[in-house]
Amino acid sequence: MERFAVGRPRRAVALAATVVVSAALAPIAAAPVVSAQAAHALLITEYVEGTSFNKAIEITNTGVTPVDLAGYSVEVYSNGSTSTSSNDRLAGTLAPGSSFVYGSSRAGFTVDQGTGAGLWNGDDAIVLRSTDGGVVDSFGQVGFDPGTAWTSGEVSTVDRTLRRIVGSAPDTDPSNVFDPAAQWTSMPVDTFDGLGNWPDDDSGGDPGDPGDEEPVGACGEAATAVGAVQGPGAQSPMVGQSATVEGIVVGDMQTGGFRGFYLQDAGDGDAATSDGVFVYTETPAVSVGDRVRLTGTVAEYFGMTQIQPTATEVCATGQDLPAPIEVALPIADRDSLEQYEGMRVTLPQQVTIIEAFNYDRYGQIAVSTGRQFQPTNQFEAGSSEARALAEANAADRILIDDGRSTQNPDPAIHPDGADFTIDHRFRMGDHLDGVTGVLDYRFEAWAIQPTQGATHTVANPRPTAPVVDAPLTVAGANVLNYFTTLRSDDRNARGALDATEFARQEDKIVAMLAGLDADVVGLTEIENNDDVALRRLVDALNARVGEGTYRALETGRLGTDAITTAFIYKPAAVSPDGAVEVLDETVDPRFVTSKNRPALAQVFTDKTSGEDVTVVVNHLKSKGSACADLGDPEDPNGQGNCNGVRTNAARALADWLGDHPRLSASGHSLVIGDLNAYAKEDPILALNEAGYVDVIRQHVGPEAYTYVFDGQLGYLDHALASAGLAEHVTDVAVWTNNADEPDLIDYTMEFKKDAQDAIYAPDAYRASDHDPVLVGLDLAGDGDPGDPEEPTDPQEPGTGSVSGVFGTIGTALRSLFAGSSA
Hints:
- The chain is α+β, with helices and mostly antiparallel strands and 822 residues long.
- This is LTD domain-containing protein.
């Protein structure tokens, strides 16, 4: 495969996995959907029982008509029980010959339908049942516990991926004896290659199987214009018909996962129709610049027009490519891109990298004409300004893929076309010029599949650790599930998989905390295990910065969540004054601790000035969590789920700090931590109304951020000072060491290739997904009032700035719901 070919866009879309699981099989023309009970053509064709949450089954439609999956459910029977431990109704429509992946929503691969249930171990049975009550297929034996696994020959159901042998009949009697070797072949644990593509062997059925070839005619003879195949609308008017086309290969993706190439002809003169089309075949091998003539059947594949050829001929090689079409951001009407689907395009302007969430797994980034901000970080939720920004900026982004559909591709490709390494990398905020490739539509998103490297400019260099000029410093830092309990030992743990990962994670977190060098640090996302993780972290930090430099404020277990908040401090700088205080629902029922982590407050005495300051570290419920049980579902104004839970907690926090005689005695209170709310959302406004000053906004400015979600910046991590303390704040800094770095460089190794594991350094960069906040205090003197906040007006895309290089605010309404950890 050429270094840049056409590859796969974002998978983090509701229908993504449906494409993934059927990518290897021939698409078909639209056909009427039969009822689920009309004919049971479904077969369980792959079984994954891997490490951690890597559990899935692949279900394939072996029939000739689409199947409505709403007529089926997956039942799990654990440990020999005859009662289900889980029962999930499926959803969607499965095309003939296509496959569907059902599995854990936390698996290390994409699934069509995810579940939060624990699913199965090697001794659990699985039944695919129709809603008419009939068993369609089964795996294992219901009512029998084999111990650890069913095993026959070299085939075992524990710590393995099993693939159904082609020609196997469904097992409709789940109570009969199960012999896995009779119908299944075994692969090593955590083998996901081919998941969603059955059969994935040489048994036939793959694209490119010539079958009975049809003649293509002579090269250069009259052919159907690609524009006629594409038509002027979103769907081809020729679906199900045969067409003979001839053109130039402008994107080769026959290897790397998509199994085809893009062909573009000279055009039909109709600006409303695209002159490019995807050709779904792996044979014969072609190269960019080949002139190819082919005959095949036209189909729509989840919104993308394609041809599956029955005969193909390479007419010539080394042909000139058509000039790329200029597609400029912003794009007000996304449907207008249909006229360029499959064609060679270029972005005629400099663009900014705004997101790399899928870069490690799928080689994909998002770009815009400038940096974008969460609308509710800049404007009050529900305001016309917030909605206008969201709508306007939805047009100002496009995806850039890497020409491959494989997970964790090796090597990772830098947008400039070279290999991404620890020394040759990029950050969000960097610039690209000359982005050129094929315009591609999959997974409900448009993407450019590059055919050449772009020019990369470092516009957002890595910042060194900030220094604030103050006699006392307080920091808030997220340590991204720092767990001493390893996931290899306990599947409910959230952090490192094993000792190697843990050492890598700890090195990065220690480097970050050492760089902050704060006198008091409030931590979030540390394991809630009776201070074991906290003590371990302090020991590791002191091993780096000097024995006794930091001390843990031990509290024991707080609340019921797996993660908690915590304090570490420098005993040379401060001393705790009295016992730690905890706010939970027993103190105020508005602070629901079945959702929020308890707030942790401590009065510290500054040894320099002798003055006290109350610091409260928080971690409120995330935007993506479920709070419908409390009557608090998704907020209609873009604040996500659990907004009421967070707002009530914020009000309870303000009242508690104001009424508590010891915590309020000094008049110096600082609220820090992950409040899971952006700066203009209800929880923060509630604290503002109670007199708490947003000192990040006051000192850093309205373009401050600690988190990137869906390419948009904002701060979920706060520093809110009481009126009495705000006048003693000398400076505030956000160290953007984490959010702007692609997570490819983080500590995790579980799903990476060896070469990706090597893209790591034991430094502070990408120690977490949140950036730490550092606050400088002079309790004995006057602080710096900072700059008063001024209204932020909506800006045209690409005209805004942060430190002179950042751009526009906002993207899609969908991203208004962005959040953090649960």
